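FYI - complex with adenosine-5'-diphosphate, inputs then prediction.
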Amino acid sequence: MTLTSGETVVGVVGGGQLGRMLGEAAGPLGIDLVVSDPTQNAPAASVVSDQIVGAFDDESTIRALAERSSYLTYEIELADPDALERISEETDTPVHPHPETLRLIEDKLRQKRRLSEAGIPVPAFRQVDSAEQLRDALDELGYPAMLKAREGGYDGRGNVPVHSPEDVEDAVAAIDGPAMVEEFVDYERELAVMGAVGDGEVDTFPVTETIHEEEILRETASPARTTPEVRARAKEVVRDVLDVLSGRGVFGVELFETSEGEILLNEIAPRPHNSGHWTIEGCHTSQFEQHLRGVTGRPLGTTERRAPTVSTNILGDVEKRQRATLTGETAVFERPRAHLHWYGKREVYRLRKMGHVTLVGDDAAEDDDAESAEDILADVRTLRDGLTFTE
Ligand code: ADP
């Protein structure tokens, strides 16, 4: 491998915050990034070599990206697996993870079926194409349950809780398309593990606790505040999940820990994931560097944690869509071991992911000490609560 700048170009479908953080990781590896995104000056634009403006599933955009790239990847599930597969073959540009993986994951029902067939523990689920089918399914699964759009949902949009038979009609109408229903998991906590697949190598990052509110990820803490046995089981399940998927790169695997200490799979993202942002400062290799190593077939880096680490999302807190002006960030800059990540989005609206803050704890903490994340979590929440958006 020769490191001549510009020799390895990775084309990324999607130029949001994930594309931006991939761009930040690419430079030191001698990799140039080109992204495609429908929004001009997308968050990634200022840190990558170039942005092609075009829809995620637009053939000519993907072709233009492929023609400039040594490898293709994607940072959003709205990328089109058929177009990616075809153009990858026509232009002889490898795409990772394999489009077949994207095809499987973009449909939550197909995903759950395939994983369940492979013996991965998942919540009980049924296909739902009508109110009648939902009613029948819930006669078996019981109430409450979660109705999910099969495609296109993110950050909880596309999920509707169903508490009683009276909710059935409205829930089906709200989804308005192909759906699946899942038993409501009475989980103890949510966990996530970033899996990494290289050229003949497989690895997992340390287990992370994910804290959601209104179905949106607020904070992540690693180590997760659970037992070593549960963490070991979570990693075991994720290794089995990676066996089902094809292609290289990182995969975000979201899990539930039930009150009995069992692990159930929630869903997979075939790309870097919000639950892995803490790895930028918290691990020796970040999820973004690891993804690029995987996609380009370079050896994977170690997934070891440097120290207990917590991240919090900075979410929009204004009702009206407006220019994004953050205040209160001085406290983050002043705090040793706190790191601000600003995504450069021009406009803010309620619950939009605008950035994140990571706080790294004491290197001397026992690596497996579940309580070690507790104090850092409280501190990072204080830092975050001091951040607000103003007009
Ligand atoms: P998205 O694809 O929008 O991220 P998910 O299906 O991952 O949606 O759900 C988002 C959140 O909703 C989960 O992190 C969890 O908090 C909650 N959730 C999803 N499915 C269930 C379920 N079956 N039981 C309980 N809570 C759930």
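The pocket of adenosine-5'-diphosphate is lined by residues 123, 146, 148, 153-159, 182, 184-185, 190, 212, 215, 254, 266-267 (CB under 6 Å). The mean pLDDT is 95.
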